[in-house]
Amino acid sequence: MLRRWLKANALLAPTGVWLGIFLIAPLVVVVEFSFATRDTGVARAVLPWTTQAYLTALDPAFLPIFGRALVYAVATTAACLLLGFPLAWFIARHGGRYRTALLAAVLIPFWSSYLARIYAWKALLDGEGLVNTVLGWVGLGRDGGFLLTHGAVVLGLTYGFLPFMVLPLYVACERFDVRLVEASYDLGHGRVSTFFRVVLPGVMTGVLAGSLLVLVPAAGDFVTPKLLGGVGQSTFGSVIDDQFRGGNNWPLGSAMAVLLLVLVVLVLVLRGRRGEDVL
Amino acid sequence: MNRRPWVLGAVVTAVFLFLYAPIAWLAIASFNSSRSLSRISGFSLQWYAELADDTRVFDSLRLTLQLALASAVISTVIGTLAAFGLRRAFAGRGLWTVLLSLPLVVPEVVMGVAMLGFFVKLAGVPLGFGALLFAHVAFSLSFVVVVVRSRVSGMDVRMEEAAADLGASPFVAFRTVTLPLVAPAVVAGAAFAFLLSFDDVVISSYLTGVGSTTLPVFVYAQASKRGISPEIVALSTLMVTATALLLIIGVVIASWRASAGSRVTSR
């Protein structure tokens, strides 16, 4: 028993050391910074300790920004689920010998530059872009195109995070025993009832793991909202970024980062142990 | 069970269209004769020609490739070890799982500013390749662990026990039985780690130093000034084409080996 424990920890030790130094320690420092007094011009925040940064961060003026980031994140997660589930189910259940190839085909577009993809959407969505032109033929066009709308931001985020939803969903769908569906039909359940009572609970671990991988990172993303939503679309991430890059108010940026970390912890706690083996 | 499989097929086709539309558009725009990405005015190869002449792009491309390769190697090695460490239940496994899920869920901007604050300003690691490598391994590791672990946990322990019963030493059993079984997942994990490092904008943007700008950061800086340059569109097109070709070759080889393998065993 002890031997097994030692062996497991020995194998995990390099990962633990690396994450301890290069991830955990930095996150602890962010918490420390968030209680520091603002120190103009110099990067290093100094004493005395204060909660001023949190009072500023929780100012009602920032509420619309946080709200927008959360709405974007939830909408993105929902859209990724709606698109990702049929895809994952199809590949896992009907992919046959091409399963790996199909899964790889989902990832191929992501070998192009992330920024190039966002700019491609920008070009497709703007006033004279393809989407507006085609929709114009059927009378659904829009003056100035679809750029700088909330929809464009959610579309861009969904595009960027979809693989992170598809992979865990795929694992869950592959493990799911399809005979349960037949049993449900035999027992007189319809399609809708079977989906909600049998399929969904069966792949719930994948749904939770995928949502976890999409929700919080999407809430913190600022490049996509900036490029597809325009300058008026500040989000959680862009406000943090501003404090560290331009505004030079590290304590305020840190306090906001800590608020995002609280969201991370909240989501992890809510998930509990479910889906641990998928993620 | 699928009484109407064409509905599912149609949805899946639509999702694949959604995934490939921007890529297809990038490929078309890379041959555009004007700078515009949204209006195609004619055919030309000038962006590919300019790309071939642009030393700045190639310098940052080389740095980005070196970084992604180093990061993928390190995170694959230690991540694979970790995945084996999590194979059997032991006290504290839950805690390790939580630690490993952190890099997956903490937003990039938070990791970026935290790393900038800690190991650049406090620990004195200079901005540049070293700082980038530490960071890239830190955020790629968990993905490797997740991918390899899914394969390791699905593996039949009796295979290795059989090898041991037949007289194989632990090392030989690992090399001839365990490793070939997990190899596909290790390759997938390495590819994932490479991709994550190669495409990272946000975290890298806090950690690049003078003369060590990665390609995505270079593109981001350029793009925020005057839009994305058609050269980058050309480069992206080349990269996706190369990846797709590699994948097709891989699938062909894998299916050829599978059919050769089944012929041997059926004999």
Q: Which bin fits the share of residues in helices of chain B? A: over 70%
Order of helices and strands of chain B: HHHHHHHHHHH
CATH architecture of chain B: Orthogonal Bundle
Quaternary structure annotation: heterodimer
End-to-end separation of chain B: 36 Å
What gyration radius of chain B follows from the Cα positions, in whole Å? 23 Å
CATH architecture title of chain A: Orthogonal Bundle
User: Count of DSSP helices of chain B?
Assistant: 11
How many β strands of chain B by DSSP? 0
Largest sheet of chain A: none
CATH level-1 class of chain B:
Mainly Alpha
Looking at CATH, the homologous superfamily of chain B is MetI-like
How many angstroms does the end-to-end distance of chain A come to?
Answer: 26 Å
Largest interface: A-B, 95 and 98 residues
The domain tally of chain B reads 1
Count all strands of chain A and give the number.
0
What is the element layout, followed by pairings?
The complex is a heterodimer of chains A (279) and B (267).
Chain A: H1 2-34, H2 52-57, H3 63-94, H4 99-107, H5 114-125, H6 130-137, H7 150-175, H8 179-186, H9 191-202, H10 204-220, H11 223-229, H12 236-245, H13 250-271
Helix pairs in contact in A: 1-13, 3-7, 3-10, 7-10, 7-11, 8-9, 10-13, 12-13
Chain B: H1 5-29, H2 46-53, H3 55-85, H4 93-105, H5 108-122, H6 129-153, H7 157-165, H8 170-198, H9 202-207, H10 215-226, H11 230-266
Helix pairs in contact in B: 1-11, 2-11, 3-6, 3-8, 4-6, 6-8, 7-8
